[in-house]
Amino acid sequence: MENNKPQTNELDYPVFLGSEIDQAKADEAFFHVIPVPYEKTVSYGGGTYLGPSHIMDASWQLEKWDGKSNPADLGIHSQKAVDCNTEPNEVMSRIAAAVSSSIKNNAMPVIIGGEHAVTYGVVKGLLDAGCKDFGLVQIDAHADLRDAYEGDPLSHASVMKRVVDLDIPLYQLGIRAYCEEEMEARKKHGVYYRDADDIAANQVQTITLPEDFPPNVFFTLDIDGMDPSIFPSTGTPVPGGLGWYQTLNLFESVAQQRNIIGFDLMEFAPIEGFHAYDFAAAQLIYKLMGIVQRNK
Predict the structure, then answer these.
(1) How far is Cα 96 from Cα 125, in angstroms, rounded to an integer?
(2) CB distance 39 to 91 below 8 Å
(3) E-assigned strands of 100-182?
(4) φ and ψ of 250, to 5 deg
(5) What pLDDT sits at residue 154?
(6) Among 218, 254, 238, which Cα is nearest to 176's?
(7) What residues does 152 pair with on adjacent strands?
(8) Angle in degrees, CA 174, 176, 178, rounded to 5
(9) How many helices (H) and strands (E) does the chain have?
């Protein structure tokens, strides 16, 4: 069912980790945080358009030391949130422009959504900036490989189909909700995968990417890929997901094998009165930054 909640107009969010660090200049920061409060096609619960603002707010409660290193030492620049008050194709173009500007500043884009359709705009931005020979690794509960959902090819349920249609290799982790059409799409496009009934059930902590997988990786993390006992704060929770440390370990195993060129966190829908989940999402992003820093 399509959700037509209005987009937020509060585009001036606090900068990420602003309680601990001074905002780095755009051309001096290694990380560019890009909030994208886009929500149009969520199909169960809503609220993803509030995710970026809550996560940016919660980041002020983080410590600069992430437990192993200081990722902020590389410099963090928070871009102004992408204005999503327009039609979907224009939103994708605005997301692409924000990501492209990050790449052109020799920075790593870290995108905070918003619904998962946002990742299509991110990929367009990577391509517009001249990024080549990259693949996507996706943690998610859903395959997102429908050609269209409820007639919309830019739906959150179709985002990975748009990606593989661009001939970008895809490796899926933790999927546990898919239809026959999506299974056929996997076969047609040669999608690699290790589903939740394998890696979650067996507590797999590392993966080995295929030899022919590209040397550069963009990592997309739908929060519902993790188990709802950890993050019930999402519109489409599915039991049987990944654990906290398992998610971090899987990300690190990819970072040890390939060059991470950026990552995103999608589909976080805050629950009013439960700020623990906001903080956990902010901490997850900062932990991923730390893994990137230590594997540069």
Answers:
(1) 4
(2) no
(3) 108-113, 134-139, 170-173
(4) -65, -40
(5) 86
(6) 238
(7) 149
(8) 125
(9) 8, 8
Helix ranges restricted to H, 105-241 = 118-128, 159-165, 180-189, 196-199
**Range 25-31 average pLDDT:** 97
Please say if the pLDDT value at position 8 is more than 60.
Answer: no
CB neighbour list of residue 85: distance below 8 Å, 6 or more residues apart: 6, 7, 9
Residue 170's beta-bridge partner residues? 136
Angle between helices 118-128 and 88-104 (to 10 degrees): 50
Banded pLDDT at 155 (limits 50, 70, 90): confident
pTM comes to 0.94
CATH fold, domain 31-294, is: Arginase; Chain A (3.40.800)
**What six digits make up the tokens of 255?**
């970072």
In whole angstroms, what is the distance from residue 144 CA to residue 37 CA? 19
Could you give the CA distance from residue 196 to residue 239 in angstroms, rounded to a whole number? Answer: 10
Instruction: Tell me the pLDDT tens digit for each residue of 251-268.
Output: 999 999 999 999 999 999
Please give the mean pLDDT across all residues of the chain.
Answer: 94
CA 45/CA 224 separation, integer angstroms: 12
Q: What pLDDT is attached to residue 152?
A: 86
Structure confidence at residue 42 (pLDDT): 65
Q: Is the omega angle on the peptide bond into residue 235 within 30 degrees of 0, that is, cis?
A: no
Parallel, antiparallel or unpaired: strands 76-78 and 170-173: unpaired
Q: What is the pLDDT of residues 139-148, one digit of tens each?
A: 999 999 999 9
User: What stretches of 2-93 adopt beta strand conformation (E)?
Assistant: 31-36, 76-78
Q: How far is CA 252 from CA 13, 21, 193, 202, 285, in A?
A: 29, 25, 17, 18, 13
Q: What is the CA radius of gyration of the chain?
A: 17
Q: What is the DSSP letter of 152?
A: B
> Tokens standing for 76?
């963090």
